[in-house]
Amino acid sequence: MPRPFTRLAEPLAFVRQFTPSWFAVTMGTGALALVIAALPWGGALERRLAEGFWLFNAVLFAGFALLFIARILLFRDTLRPMLLHPVQSMFLGAIPMGLATLINGLVLFGVPHWGESALVLAHGLWWLDVALALGVALLVPYLMFTRQDHALEKLTAVWLLPIVAPEVAAAAAGVLAPHLEPEAARQVLVTGYLLWGVSLSLAFSLITLVLLRLALHKLPGSEFAATSWLPVGPLATGCLGLLSLGKAMPAAFAGTALTGVADLARDVGLIGSLLLWGAALWWLVMALFCTRRHLRQDMRFNLGWWGFTFPLAVFTLATFELQRRTGIAFFGPVAAALALGLALIWLQVMARTLAGLWHGELFQAPCLAAAAGLSRT
């Protein structure tokens, strides 16, 4: 039987080689917990299963956060290569997005157990998430404009990761706001709409570039196979954000001068969400075609495979919510099929992640390898 971490020769190598791409694991796992909780036919068993996944995800996030902080403190020389790497820096967006799944779960699962204290914690963490999301959405593009090396033929949808983070926080605002006092809820909702606007406007621009790149330079290598699913993420999150924000608006603004606007936000949000759902569906079908083509090649596993999970999970959540809001039966079977597919993909990706973790294969930071190569030349 092979020894664990056989590829890690030096002490604390797993800290030095830790990358923010590990937070994609928390994105997919946390989103799966939310999907299980959203099953319309779910009972007590499904609720406990969803809560178990959420708790497991909380442990993962805490562990990854400690490793990431330890890397920054103990190996400060690795920070610059990470920030300047044209791919690894994008995964900084996975940190606030993974945190957002914990905040949603804290509202859904924590409040029934711990009451007001869980709500206070969720509220505070949400503002932290906003700060992290905006920080990443500003820092990474600035580095792209000034320091990093990019070209159109190298572009992939991984560029979406840092700018989608504010949109994920916006969707979480709609989950949190109904549990807050009206004044606090109004602050959260207005901030949520601002975040939604910042993120989706940039996402549309990048999705256009992704479409152009694919038409001119065809599919990227199989190591980037999961990136074909990433455009589904901002479109589905935008759909879910409009639904959750709009649903929370009337109660938060009742009795204020914006009562009419709040009702309009709810109704327009439903129409807008249908438009975004249709756009996300096109990209999902196209992602399936692209993945089928990649499967004919030698697809070696990497942490980017977690990109198969989060976009699909958010699209599933949006589909369940549309079924509840519209009452149209079509959305129910589609959401059920999506949820089943998500569960199967999560099991496959998690199994490969655990195997890679056992052998230490996943503790190899590409940014450090690239920096070492440059120093030799």
TrEMBL record:
<feature type="transmembrane region" description="Helical">
    <location>
        <begin position="157"/>
        <end position="177"/>
    </location>
</feature>
<dbReference type="InterPro" id="IPR038665">
    <property type="entry name" value="Voltage-dep_anion_channel_sf"/>
</dbReference>
<feature type="transmembrane region" description="Helical">
    <location>
        <begin position="228"/>
        <end position="248"/>
    </location>
</feature>
<keyword id="KW-0813">Transport</keyword>
<dbReference type="InterPro" id="IPR051629">
    <property type="entry name" value="Sulfite_efflux_TDT"/>
</dbReference>
<dbReference type="GO" id="GO:0000319">
    <property type="term" value="F:sulfite transmembrane transporter activity"/>
</dbReference>
<dbReference type="Pfam" id="PF03595">
    <property type="entry name" value="SLAC1"/>
</dbReference>
<feature type="transmembrane region" description="Helical">
    <location>
        <begin position="124"/>
        <end position="145"/>
    </location>
</feature>
<feature type="transmembrane region" description="Helical">
    <location>
        <begin position="268"/>
        <end position="291"/>
    </location>
</feature>
<feature type="transmembrane region" description="Helical">
    <location>
        <begin position="193"/>
        <end position="216"/>
    </location>
</feature>
<keyword id="KW-1133">Transmembrane helix</keyword>
<keyword id="KW-1003">Cell membrane</keyword>
<keyword id="KW-0812">Transmembrane</keyword>
<feature type="transmembrane region" description="Helical">
    <location>
        <begin position="87"/>
        <end position="112"/>
    </location>
</feature>
<feature type="transmembrane region" description="Helical">
    <location>
        <begin position="53"/>
        <end position="75"/>
    </location>
</feature>
<protein>
    <submittedName>
        <fullName>C4-dicarboxylate ABC transporter</fullName>
    </submittedName>
</protein>
<feature type="transmembrane region" description="Helical">
    <location>
        <begin position="328"/>
        <end position="347"/>
    </location>
</feature>
<feature type="transmembrane region" description="Helical">
    <location>
        <begin position="21"/>
        <end position="41"/>
    </location>
</feature>
<dbReference type="GO" id="GO:0005886">
    <property type="term" value="C:plasma membrane"/>
</dbReference>
<keyword id="KW-0472">Membrane</keyword>
<feature type="transmembrane region" description="Helical">
    <location>
        <begin position="303"/>
        <end position="322"/>
    </location>
</feature>
<dbReference type="InterPro" id="IPR004695">
    <property type="entry name" value="SLAC1/Mae1/Ssu1/TehA"/>
</dbReference>
<comment type="similarity">
    <text>Belongs to the tellurite-resistance/dicarboxylate transporter (TDT) family.</text>
</comment>
